[in-house]
């Protein structure tokens, strides 16, 4: 006779079903997993009748379950479930004040609780009530009075499924963590390579190599002000660091000359744009025609497969000396014929050149830099890009001070 229900005999403890196999190690594995479920699973019981809770819990205790949370007050059920995060909820439907259907609805609309399996316990025979419950996605139904053997089997099955789902979720999170970690390592390696390549050229006339870092960061700030998203702005920052990679091909006698360059020497300097693009990512004639005709080619390159940073760096290397009025080099592009990333880098590069010491000039104060740049708005610089630069001037000056030579 069952101690909590005199009308029923005590159930024999249920054992987990073992696959039809003679492999003793596999059987041992299944027993171990079920033993773990008995020890670790938390079962929530919500029923307005205390006796019903005692009977159900008694069956489960005999099977070996140890962890329970319970309440007869339906108004406290959601708080209890949210705080304890049980592995399964045994939920009565017909309760005063708040019905089991309302609790189930609240669970299924709660991102934290929606994954918890629910076994509905009900003595209601109404087809409409059962249909309403089914539409809310319970894991199973049990009719009252509860049969001990059926209860234990269904609890076991539900917990086994949840344990498997939890394992998959944990594996997915670990896999995602590893992918993120590996991606971060790849990105960091790429950024180091880009910076080292940029510094290799910049050390020719800037023994700190910080010019390329500053130009990259200025370009990112300007891009963000213009409405580029974070990912695009990051690409522009990295690509802009390679804007002068072509200096590798310029002789020291020209690159390090103090004073004004002769026309022939200036022609040599101009070649660093084409040299830089050749080093990074040479464009064939058809590609060149495409970006001449399309004012936003840089934005398109951001989305291309392959190596978007290097593709964009090639465009910047070739076009950061183009001018808004068409008087720049090497192609004489005008206005929005110049890729937006080239226009951005032009402003960033000129500001850093003016505010830094060079073999042919001292560093200018901020006021003088701005006066010179203002006089070139609409001729050298895209007015919209230059205004974005001014809008971010405080942040740009902070970067300049942080990365001073």
Briefly say what this structure is.
The protein is mostly helical and 405 residues long. It has helices spanning 24-40, 50-63, 77-84, 100-108, 127-135, 148-202, 210-225, 230-240, 252-255, 263-280, 285-293, 297-302, 308-319, 340-355, 366-375, 383-391, 393-402, and strands at 42-46, 67-71, 88-92, 118-122, 140-143.
Keywords:
five-stranded parallel sheet, mainly alpha
Spatial sequence of strands, sheet with the most strands: 2-1-3-4-5
Which percent band covers the strand fraction? 5-15%
**Uncertain stretches:** 1-22, 291-306
Largest sheet: 5 strands, parallel
Please, how many helices? 17
Q: What percent of the residues sit in helical stretches (DSSP H or I)?
A: 55-70%
Gap between N and C termini, in Å? 89 Å
Global shape: elongated
Could you explain the architecture of this structure?
- By secondary structure, this protein is mainly α.
- It is built from 17 helices and five strands.
- A five-stranded parallel β-sheet has the order 2-1-3-4-5, with helices on both faces.
- Helix 5 links the parallel strand 4 and strand 5.
- The longest helix has 55 residues, at 148-202.
- The chain is elongated, with a radius of gyration of 35 Å.
What's the layout of helices and strands?
Elements: H1 24-40, E1 42-46, H2 50-63, E2 67-71, H3 77-84, E3 88-92, H4 100-108, E4 118-122, H5 127-135, E5 140-143, H6 148-202, H7 210-225, H8 230-240, H9 252-255, H10 263-280, H11 285-293, H12 297-302, H13 308-319, H14 340-355, H15 366-375, H16 383-391, H17 393-402
Parallel strand pairs: 1-2, 1-3, 3-4, 4-5
Helix pairs in contact: 6-7, 7-8, 7-14, 7-16, 7-17, 8-13, 10-13, 13-14, 14-15
């Amino acid at each position: 006779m069952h101690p909590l229900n005199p009308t029923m005999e005590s159930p024999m403890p249920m054992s987990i079903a073992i696959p039809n196999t003679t492999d003793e190690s596999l059987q041992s594995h299944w027993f171990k997993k079920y033993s773990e479920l008995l020890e670790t699973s938390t079962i929530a019981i919500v029923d307005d009748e205390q006796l019903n809770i005692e009977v159900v819990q008694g069956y489960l205790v005999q099977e070996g379950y140890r962890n329970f949370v319970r309440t007869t007050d339906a108004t406290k059920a959601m708080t209890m479930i949210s705080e304890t995060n049980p592995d399964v909820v045994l939920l009565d439907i017909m309760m005063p004040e708040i019905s089991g259907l309302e609790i189930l609805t609240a669970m299924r609309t709660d991102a934290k609780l929606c994954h918890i399996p629910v076994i509905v316990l009900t003595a209601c025979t109404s087809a409409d009530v059962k249909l309403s419950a089914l539409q809310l996605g319970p894991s199973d139904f049990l009719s009252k009075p509860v049969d001990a053997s059926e209860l234990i089997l269904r609890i076991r099955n539900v917990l086994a499924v949840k344990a498997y789902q939890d394992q998959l979720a944990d594996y997915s999170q670990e896999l995602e963590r590893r992918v993120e970690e590996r991606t971060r390592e790849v990105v960091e390696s790429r950024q180091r390579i880009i910076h080292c390549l940029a510094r290799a050229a910049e050390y020719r006339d800037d023994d700190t190599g910080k010019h390329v870092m500053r130009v990259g960061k200025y370009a990112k700030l300007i891009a963000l002000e213009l409405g580029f998203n974070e990912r695009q702005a990051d690409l522009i920052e990295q690509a802009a660091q390679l804007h002068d990679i072509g200096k590798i091909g310029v002789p020291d006698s020209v690159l390090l000359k103090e004073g004004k360059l002769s026309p022939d020497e200036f022609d040599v300097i101009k070649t660093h744009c084409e040299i830089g693009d050749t080093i990074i990512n040479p464009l064939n004639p058809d590609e060149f025609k495409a970006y001449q005709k399309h004012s936003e080619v840089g934005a398109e390159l951001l989305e291309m497969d392959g190596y978007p940073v290097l593709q964009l760096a090639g465009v910047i290397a070739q076009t950061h000396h183009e001018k808004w009025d068409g008087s720049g080099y090497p192609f004489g592009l005008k206005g929005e014929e110049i890729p937006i990333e080239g226009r951005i880098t032009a402003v960033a590069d000129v500001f850093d050149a003016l505010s830094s010491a060079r073999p042919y000039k001292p560093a200018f104060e901020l006021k003088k830099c701005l006066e010179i740049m203002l006089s070139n708005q609409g001729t050298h610089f895209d007015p919209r890009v230059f205004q974005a630069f001014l809008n971010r001037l405080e942040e740009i000056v902070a970067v300049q001070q942080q990365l001073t030579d």
